[in-house]
């Protein structure tokens, strides 16, 4: 459980802090601050702590060997902790900014469609869709679920791949010397 808390916390904090830095530092009109590619790339990089934590657990606690299910379970636990941290910090950010994110997101989305030359009918459809999203996002349970589901599937896939790779003890073998082979400190 210690590994899930440590590596999940690191993962969740790094992901949400980088994404929030993007919201604060990248100009709003650039489109990059609301980029799905940017967000999911950050999530994938942050979720690499699943691999690191699972490997560390395999090497330190299991003597360099771990089966698929325990590795996958640990990976899911790390992803769960990362998701909880992500949601908690995001909710704090929303409260601190007066829940203005959705207004900004909708305005940017509608403007992007307008700039692309969408027809008035298409703009009306997008605006109605965004208003439905605003209403759903106003419900804390829906918003928390949506936020968690942004990040957890990435963690699920990384946990699956990590468990499949790390069950092979020859892949990134443990760098642990047997007790008798260790040089004496002098």
Structure description:
This protein has one domain (2-171). Helix 3 packs across helix 7. It has helices at residues 2-25, 36-46, 48-61, 68-96, 101-115, 120-138, 140-166. It contains seven helices and no strands. The chain is mostly helical and 186 residues long.
How do the helices and strands line up, and which of them pair or pack?
Layout: H1 2-25, H2 36-46, H3 48-61, H4 68-96, H5 101-115, H6 120-138, H7 140-166
DSSP helix fraction: over 70%
Domain tally: 1
Provide mean pLDDT, rounded.
87
How much of the sequence lies in strands comes to: under 5%
- Uncertain regions: pLDDT < 50 for 5+ in a row? none
**N- to C-terminal distance:** 36 Å
Specify the overall morphology: elongated
How many helix segments?
Answer: 7
Largest sheet: none
Which sequence of SSEs, written as H and E, runs from N to C? Answer: HHHHHHH
SS-based class = mainly alpha
**DSSP E strands, number:** 0
Radius of gyration: 21 Å
Question: Key terms for this structure?
Answer:
0% strand; 75% helix; 186 residues; mainly alpha
């Amino acid at each position: 459980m210690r590994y899930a808390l440590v590596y999940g916390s690191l993962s969740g904090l790094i992901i949400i802090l980088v994404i929030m830095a993007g919201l604060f530092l990248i100009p709003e009109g650039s489109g990059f601050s609301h980029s799905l590619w940017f967000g999911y790339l950050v999530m994938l990089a942050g979720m690499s702590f699943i691999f690191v934590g699972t490997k560390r657990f395999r090497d330190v606690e299991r003597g360099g060997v771990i089966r698929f299910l325990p590795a996958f379970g640990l990976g899911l636990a790390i992803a769960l902790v990362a998701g909880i941290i992500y949601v908690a910090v995001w909710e704090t950010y929303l409260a601190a900014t007066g829940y203005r994110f959705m207004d900004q997101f909708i305005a940017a989305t509608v403007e992007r469609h307008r700039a692309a030359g969408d027809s008035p009918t298409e703009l009306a459809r997008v605006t109605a869709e965004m208003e439905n999203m605003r209403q759903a996002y106003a419900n804390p349970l829906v918003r928390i679920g949506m936020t968690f589901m942004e990040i957890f599937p990435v963690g699920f896939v990384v946990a699956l791949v990590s468990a499949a790779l790390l069950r092979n003890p020859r892949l990134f073998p443990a760098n642990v010397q047997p007790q008798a082979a260790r040089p004496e400190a002098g």
